[in-house]
Amino acid sequence: MKLFLDTANFDEIREVASWGVLDGVTTNPSLCSKETVSFEDNIRRICALTPGPVSAECVSLKADEIVPEARALAGLAPNVAVKIPVGLEGLKATKTLAGEGVAVNMTLVFSAGQALLAAKAGARFVSPFIGRLDDISEDGMALVEEIVEIFGNYRIETEVIVASVRHPRHVIEAARLGADIATVPFAVMGKLVRHPLTDIGIERFLADWRKVKT
Description:
Mean pLDDT: 96
Largest sheet: 8 strands, parallel, barrel
Number of strands: 8
Number of helices: 11
CATH topology: TIM Barrel
Structural class: alpha/beta
Oligomer: single chain
CATH architecture: Alpha-Beta Barrel
Shape: globular
Distance between the termini: 46 Å
Strand content: 15-25%
Number of domains: 1
Strand order of the largest sheet: 1-2-3-4-5-6-7-8
CATH superfamily: Aldolase class I
């Protein structure tokens, strides 16, 4: 399973890239609004740091407005994937853009039906938001399981990006279900590598080593 970082912060992306585990990046308007550099410059910087897909989101709502906005975003760098919210206008835009070779990440997916339609329209990625489903007492991982099963049944090549990840267990469950990608906040990425028993083990080794040195 590929791991994307869900952030627009360049320092966070550079740090995770240094670990050797970064496969791509997802951003959204909320994340981008927190940065001090311009949106376009930030996307270019991020794309230069990772060869993997970098999702940049359209904010237009009508297909005839989404398409030119998406073309402009895709022109920022060759590895830009354009994020478009699922919906009738988004599907229309995705069909056009996919025909032009633009990678579309259809976002804000909350049902298997939405994911199936997005894939049929030509989306390169679909992003089910599992944490937001959990927030309203629905089972976000059950949705991932449905989508992975459907795509597997018909050999659909659209990749499933598990989004709205809240904790490390979400990542592990996504991997067990066979999701293609999990996009993970920086804080959660750090938690994946930590375990209290590892910390205790290191402290014991160091303590024993200090005894040897004395």
